[in-house]
Amino acid sequence: MNFPIVAPSILAADFANLQRDVELINRSEADWFHIDVMDGVFVPNISFGFPVMEAVRRHATKPLDVHLMIVQPERYIDAFAKAGAAAITVHYEACTHLHRTLTQIREAGCRAGVALNMQTPVEALADLTDAFDQVLIMTINPGFGGQKLLPLSIPKVQKMQRLLAMARSNALIGVDGGIDARTMGPVLDAGAHYFVAGTSVFGAKDPLDAVRTLKHLAPTKPLA
Ligand SMILES: O=C(CO)[C@H](O)[C@H](O)COP(=O)(O)O
Questions:
Q1: Which of 97, 98, 116, 208 could form a disulfide with 120 if both were Cys (CB 3.0 to 4.6 A apart)?
Q2: 46 phi, psi to nearest 5 deg
Q3: Which atom of ligand 1 is nearest to the CA of 67?
Q4: Which one of 3.40.50.970, 3.20.20.70, 3.40.366.10, 3.40.50.300 gives the CATH number of domain 2-217?
């Protein structure tokens, strides 16, 4: 696998034309579909659940990267794995027993991901670096698409990159929120491998071109 990996967020798609938008991403240079599941408790918004996830899966030809912004995500890991998730990311802040939940994700046959909200320091994961395959640094306060990337998150990506290097972990670093052709460069330089982008892709006049721009912002490199 090479990076940068581009993962358009379905949250910003036109749900009345979901099949059209999924097929658009199939044709694009994007690598993954990003599926934002929100419960109205962990974040102040409700997005969608299994019916939409399954509709995306029926038409998608690329891996589904599921981001659970829900409390007690362990209740739904197996169901999302069955619904076709290739990767499942849970929030550090939403898990009482994070190690157990990450193990459950791997046992369900998916890549295990953990997301960190703005206030959570990267050191919170220092003892668990063997337990996840990807880490998602939130570059906004989660809950809504269309927000501006918070610059405070950029040094955090760098810190995470150092922490993983020290631990000799090959986990991928992702960023989520306010990613576009202007903001992607600094987070890429800071060490991010995958880039979740909603508004800048689906809100663009030409989403195929928007994905291409992100994908070619820097020469692709092989992952460790
Ligand atoms: O997790 C999310 C919101 O909580 C979305 O993935 C994120 O906001 C991406 O959308 P945009 O590119 O519009 O910021």
A1: 116
A2: -115, 130
A3: 1
A4: 3.20.20.70
